[in-house]
Amino acid sequence: MKVKIIALIMVLTAFNPLFAKEKDDQKSLEYYDAEKIKIVRTHQLTTEGNYRWPIWSPDGKKISADNWYGLQIFEFKENGKEIEKIGEITEMTGNNYAWSPAGDSMVYTVNEGGAAFSLWLLKIGKEKGKLKIISKNRLTSEGGVEPAWSPDGSKIVFSGGKSLMIINSDGANREVLIEGEEIWEPKFISNEEILYLKGSTKVEIKPRMFRPRDMRHLFKFNVLTHEETDLFPDDIITNFKIVLSEKHKDKMYYSLKKTGEKVVINLDMTEKYKIPVEDEYLSKEDISPDGSKFICLKVEPDWKHDDIIGAEFYIMNSDGTGLRQLTNTPDIVEGDTNWSPDGRWLLYVDEEKNNIFVSKLTRHHD
């Protein structure tokens, strides 16, 4: 009798339009307006605190997060409710690491003393059915900071301070591409092209006297031709993010230093538009994997104590329309947001207790 009941439930699930629609929605959230997206469930993944900057691996099966003891690496369980520790990196310098495109390795920076940095490669594999760190190897003793992988995983680009460098992912063929000015946040946009910020964050006003001032511009470098291009000569840029999508045009968004506006543009330099900052307490935290939506954070400041009283997530389309509140959690101050590669999950930290949370997104049915 029990077997028959289970079989009946399976049949009803397979042919019930409601079940079918919910399953389809999970695969195609990118096609819905931001006003149609909602959070259906939230889970607290850690309890011990001290976490910040949680990041998904590109395969969506692992999570890395910094804490006082180093970089912690977890497996994200299929039920979406828990994580299991894989290992940790205690020797890493700052938040200088990057997951490989396949999600089975990461490159990270180690300070060898003074201004000497090395690059290390960590690999993750299975032993007795469980994920664990299987190796850590130095790639080069002449490394740098802010490493990033090429889309095919064959090369790694990084900043050497006042130089842009590249190396094969096996540690061979280290090459200085350009040098002279400070290099920040290098990122591949294809296997042949790299974007990065170049310029100083402080200006000399008298001999050996400096004033903080962001003068960074966004450049593109072609690895094959060694051609360097200043993409937006009139814009001083504070940060940028790239979205490489298989289904849509590759996109980028960046922040303008002068106005605080966010600019969204296709990487082929078409369809450029600005998103005005209508609310001074609303910041664009992360963009969806397909480039169609922003997760925004609206904070409630406590000016008297120079602190934040509360924070809530909002969602909006990347053209600035469809702004909608996602969370209402007075007991959680959300921050450090990271969108999962499949667009179904939001990873974030409670800024007060520093624990990691994950929320699942779905379509809101009217």
Q: Number of helix segments?
A: 2
The amount of beta strand, in percent, is: over 45%
Share of helix, binned:
under 10%
For the record, give the distance between the C-alpha atoms at the N and C termini, rounded to a whole number. Answer: 38 Å
The CATH architecture name reads 7 Propeller
- Which term fits the overall shape? globular
Number of domains: 1
CATH class: Mainly Beta
Radius of gyration: 22 Å
Note poorly predicted spans. Answer: 2-26, 208-212
CATH topology: Methylamine Dehydrogenase, Chain H
CATH homologous group name: YVTN repeat-like/Quinoprotein amine dehydrogenase
Category from helices, strands and their pairing: mainly beta
Mean pLDDT: 81
Secondary structure tally: strands: 30
Spatial sequence of strands, sheet with the most strands:
1-30-29-28
Main pleated sheet: 4 strands, antiparallel
Verbal overview:
The chain has 366 residues and is mostly beta strands. It has one domain (29-363): Methylamine Dehydrogenase, Chain H (7 Propeller). 7% of the residues lie in helices and 52% in strands. It is globular, with a radius of gyration of 22 Å. The model is unreliable at 2-26 and 208-212 (pLDDT under 50).
